[in-house]
Structure formats: C-alpha cells, structure tokens
Design brief:
mainly alpha; Cytochrome C Oxidase, Chain A; 2 domains; 0% strand
Length: 626
Amino acid sequence: MTTMMDRPAATPGHSAPKKALIERLNIFTAFALGIIGAIVFYYVAKAILPANTDGSYIKSNNDQYVIFSMIGWFIGFMTGIGALIGPFRWLLGKDLNHDENMFYAGKDQGVKRYFRYTTDHKVVGIQYLVLTMIIFFVGGVLAMLIRTNLGHAGGGWLQPQTYNAIVGTHGIIMIVGTIIMITGPFGNFIMPIMIGARDMAFPRLNALSLWLIIAAVPCILSSFFLGGISTGWVAYNPLASQAPAGMDGYIMFICIFALSTMVAGANITTTVIKMRAKGMTWNRTPIFIYGVVASVALALPAFPVFFLSQVMSGMDRAAGSTFYNTMGGGSGWLYENLFWIMGHPEVYVILIPGVAALMEMAPVFTRRPLFSFNLAIMGIAGISGLSILVWAHHMYTTGWAPLLNGPFMLTTELISIPTGLLFLVLIGTLWRGRLWMTMPTASIYALLWNFMIGGITGIYLSDVPVDGALHGSMYVTAHFHYTLMGAGLTGALASLVYWFPKMTGRMFDKTLSWIGFWFVQIGFNIAFISMFFVGLAGQPRRVEAYAAMFSRGNMITTGGAYLIMAGMLVLLYGVISSWTGGVKAPMNPWFAKTLEWSVPNPVPLENFDVLPVVTSDAYGYGKAQS
C-alpha cells in the first residue's frame, strides 16, 4: 500500500495527488476553524438559552454567550491545528503509521513545521521561545502604558476603568509568560538532549501543551473588547462575579493554560524519570534538570486547584451557583484559599528554573565544579516543600483564620533557609574560579544582587504586623518584581544567550547581549528601588492617581521602566539579527560538559545516532575523566 509520504509525483496530464488531512492543517486553518466555532457556539447559545418575558436576556446570559463562544473557539482551534487527529484515530483503532508520525515530527518540512502541530521537541522548544517573546512583548507594552500613566500624580490619560483593565491583563499575561519562559523553550529543546534522550516521553502531549497556550491567548486578549479585567490579576471573588464579560475571557484563559501546565508537567516528569541515558544516575543528572522537574512538580498539584477555582467562578457568573456568594452560602475566603494555594507555589515555579539554569552555567564560566551539588538539590527540595505551606501569608489582612497567622509566618520565614543554600552554592562556585566574563556570568551576579533584595524585603512582608502596614502598598509590587523579574527573568535571559547557539546554530551577538543586559539591570533597579521608597511612604498600589508627594519617586520609576524597555528591545533585535545573520556557532562554543553540547548543529531529528552512556558527572572541570 502506498503511504502518505511516498505517493508518486504527478505526471503530465494528471492532477497532483490530494494532500492528506494532516498535511492541510496549520495555524491558519486553526484560527479559521476557531473563529467559525466561536460563531456557531454563540448562535447555538442564543437559540437554547431562555429569554425573559419582555424578550430581554438576564445578565448571566451574556456570560453564557461569551463562555459558549470561547468553548467553540477552543474546540475549533484545536481541531484546525490537528491536535484531535491522533486521539480520534486511536479511538477508531487505527493509530498513526510511521510515515504520519514522521510528518508530525516535521521531517523534511523546513520552516513550515513551525506553523504546524509538530511533535519534535526541538520544534516545540523554538515555538515556545517565539510564543514567550510575543507574550512578553504584549505584557511589556501594557507595562509601559501603566508606567506612562503613572508619570502624573493626578492621573494620566487613561480612565480608571481602562487603567484597571490594563493592570489586570498585564499581570496575568506576565505571570503566564514567566511561568513558561524557561521550562517552555529550554525545558523542551535542551532538556531531552541534556539527559541523552531522543525525544520527550509523549511527543503528541508535548505539542499539545504548546498549542493549548496559543489557543488560550486570544481569550485573554478578547477581554479588552468585553469590558476588561477590572479586578487585578488575582480576580478575587465576589468582585469577579460582578465584573464585565471580560472576566469570562480571564476564566477561559486560565482554564486552558492550567490544562497545558498539567500536560507539560506530566510529560517532563515522565521523560526525566524514565528516559535518562544509561549511567546518568541521579547524582550525575545536571542541576538544570532538577530545577525543571521541581518546577513542574510544584505545578502539577497547584494548577488543578487554580483550574477548579475558575470553573466555580464561571459557574457563579453564568450558571447561578453561589460558591463565592455569601448571600447563597458561599464565601470569598474559599476563592482566596484556592487561588493562593496555587499563587505562592507559582512563585517558585517561576523562580527555581531560573536559578537552576544559572547554577548550570556557573561551572561552565568558572571552569570549576558546582560547589556542593548535594546542597543545591537540598535547597531546591526545601524550597519546593515549604512553598506549599506558606500560601496564607497573602491573607493576613483578610480576617481568615487569624490563629493560623503565626504558623504561616514561621513557614514563610523558614523558606529563606533553603533559598540561602542556593546562594551559597552560587557564591561557592564563583569563589576563586577562573571567570569567563560573558553576559550569563554577569547574570549570576545580577541574580545574587536582585534576589538578595527580593528575599530580604519578603522577610519583612512575612511578619504579620509589618504586612498589615505594607500589604496594599507599592512596596509589595516592588518586592514581587524583584523576585519574579529580578531573579527569574534574569535567569531566562542568560539562558537565551547561553543556549542560543544550540537552538539556532548561531552565536548571540556579544555586544547586543551586553548592552541589553546593562539597560535591563540598571533600569530595573532604578525602577523598583524607587518603588520601595514610595511604598514605604504610603503610596497604595492598584490606583490610577496618587498624591503629589509621590511624584518624584514615580517619575524615577517610570524612567527606569523606559530603560528596561530599551534593553528588552535591544535583546529582541539581538535575537532577530543573530538568528538571521549571526556568526555560525561551533558544536560546543562554551566548552561545556553536558550532553546537549555533544550533538552537532543543527541537531539531528532524533538527537543521537547512538544513545550516549554517561560515565562521569557534568561538572568535572579540572578532574581527570574516567
């Protein structure tokens, strides 16, 4: 039987053979079917929902229309990209054959494979990288709108409702962007090669995790046309139940994104546990792998809780339930607990991969072994364990269970101990090393500086009386930006420069990497140190206008924000120019010892012709190899 991949070419006088269905599907068919699905589901909802006697529709009907439309969008999009072909064929007992699997892997497709449902982990990694840059671009534009508006004490050119919508959308988009910024691009492209595997354990699920996020993004962007997200990124109920229809976009965005994290987490964990190369014992497994696994291990229990919180929120809005409505026996505290059970582990879902990536680079650029590999693992494990026991420190001022404030204060302060272990590992690795001063090396120092500030200010906020004074101020905003951006994003940008040669076959422009680094780091510290000062002076967050006494501090913060923007644009230009015309990279430009640097550029489809056998640890610099 002639298969899809070896059909005869068209002969003169004969029409070309028709393409198989999976060859026709791509991002364009996905968007087309998604739009059609949204329209169809909208009119179905209008046809089946009851109207009032006067012909009007109750408020919940509007939410039902939006939710139905977004479900239609989601189903249409996933059908149009080809995500349902594999499961459908499996249900029919006719799973994909070898040639079809090779097509899904993107074999011999060139650039086209990046616009399709492609299962090759390297393609998925590149797709994640581009998606992350797009998310950061959108979130960054919203951030600059916020800071420009706050340049004037009495309020800027944005109306309060519009300002609130921009703040809420910026917050949740950036949170999602920082969650995927390392585990998405580098956890997909680099991690399987680093452990000596030919692909992920479940390649189709790997592609699914990416396209779920792409399907979710239009949902959150649609909120701007549906009244916006006026509750901030946390979407507290019962405020969320009273918000415009834009909140339905938030709900669908989170539900779809949570599905993606669950799928990706199960896939990455299985891959690392079951597919490490022969001889790669746990004490020979690179520290970056520990960071990625710890991150997804935290996400696996946390994001289903977030998912359920949004399902209940959607039911309150559209189905008349009262999970969070006190008039019907519900409680806003229920939402807060569900949200923060996710919301604080999520901080370390973002942070741990960034720190682990920099710990991975530290031996390479100091030419000495990682200082106390076991201590690094203890630090990651300690942070992961304690991070699920601290969520209620966000709720000190809510009145919920005040007797538990003391225990949660203790667990929050205890988490500084394993965090300190990671500091010790990095400092010990740098100590008396033969430093090779690259942008990733400088990022290690930037992490130590930024996270020291973020960590110390977090200890103050863990104290119940101090938190009561600072909880609603700009001080808190500065603190969590020092943690998520100052530490996590610093690690992500260093990872971009470090692994760029393996992902693209080109060296990242050295000059642009340094210019971007200094603009971002200097601008960041100017912006958020001044924000600490206005927060300590009493400026509240989540406000569109403020007292004139805070004007100078806000002008400085806005100036710093523009420096950050300039630095990020320089790095974006560096990505584009280096990718399209940069110096071709050798196989191992950093002379590193981990397995991803042992494969040629470009990396072959299955990574290794012969699976490697590991006989030593990845950080044996200065040691004789066995």
